[in-house]
Amino acid sequence: MRDVTVAICTHNNATLLDRTLTVLALQNFEPDYWSALVVDNNSTDETAEVVARHQRSELIPHLQYCREPRLGIAHARHRAIREASSEFVAFVDDDCLLAPDWLQQALTFSLAHPKAGAIGGRVKVLWESPPPPTALSRATWYAEQNFGDVPQQMPSAGFTYLVGAGLVVRRTALEESGWLEKRLLVGRKGRELSAGEDVEIVLRIRQAGYELWYNPAMILEHVIPERRLSIQYLSRMNRATGVPLPMLNALAEGQVPSAGVRFQRLVRALLSLAKLCLRTLVVDVVVRRRISFADWRIRLNLAWGHVVGASMFLFAHVEL
Hints:
Elements: E1 4-10, H1 14-24, E2 34-40, H2 47-57, E3 63-67, H3 73-83, E4 88-91, E5 96-98, H4 102-112, E6 116-127, H5 133-136, E7 152-153, E8 167-170, H6 171-177, H7 197-207, E9 211-224, H8 231-242, H9 245-253, H10 259-287, H11 293-315
Parallel strand pairs: 1-2, 1-4, 2-3, 6-9
Antiparallel strand pairs: 4-8, 5-9, 6-8, 7-9
């Protein structure tokens, strides 16, 4: 049994996966302490061939491969936990480049904080091409994470998060959280954008009595290709982010609100959507006589996603 498993869940992203594995091979860490696992989430490209090539090179210690046919990143992460035997599992996306000391920093910090159930690091966005202002100003939507230069414990109450890119979880904490048996959110399914499954993991771990920590010494770069910079993609991503918010808020509160409260929250979401449209019309069009349609479209999709999520949450039977 090794101390930590690097679990890379991937779907039809062979080119970036190859780059991620190439950089992973550069870790300055004792090979006996870690292993790597690629979970192929029903890919149809050259993913298997890419992993096989890296296995033959033997530059990554104990590199394993498995296939998870159920599409969805939560299913893939669940499979990773089942396959791994280590106490710590590091979820690394297939488009992330780890600093050479990332694993050393992750394990050292984890062992020094026995109550930490989940630990996130500093995530820097690596733009493959110069991003437009609409994307550059929304780097956090691309999983950028920077809470400062000093390690800090995340809030023990209310809504909080650690991004899934480079999230280290303690197996014991995940088992006690109930996430392995019951998951509300599946996350991204192939080309279908969805979100919130990583937030669900950390909130459930916190509910199980464990701490959430940010460790800035764990540095990785999140590669953002040009195709993810379009207004269409940002709009879809924002809409997908808005949908799970009502459910995640319930998780953060630790209980499902009554039907009356859920109805009130749906009304508030509708009012926010109407306010956004009215403000755009009055302030941007009538007063300023200008409007950034790109920015308005992105904000509108987030608000609309929240309305859709609140509507679904109102009629859904949810057990936390």
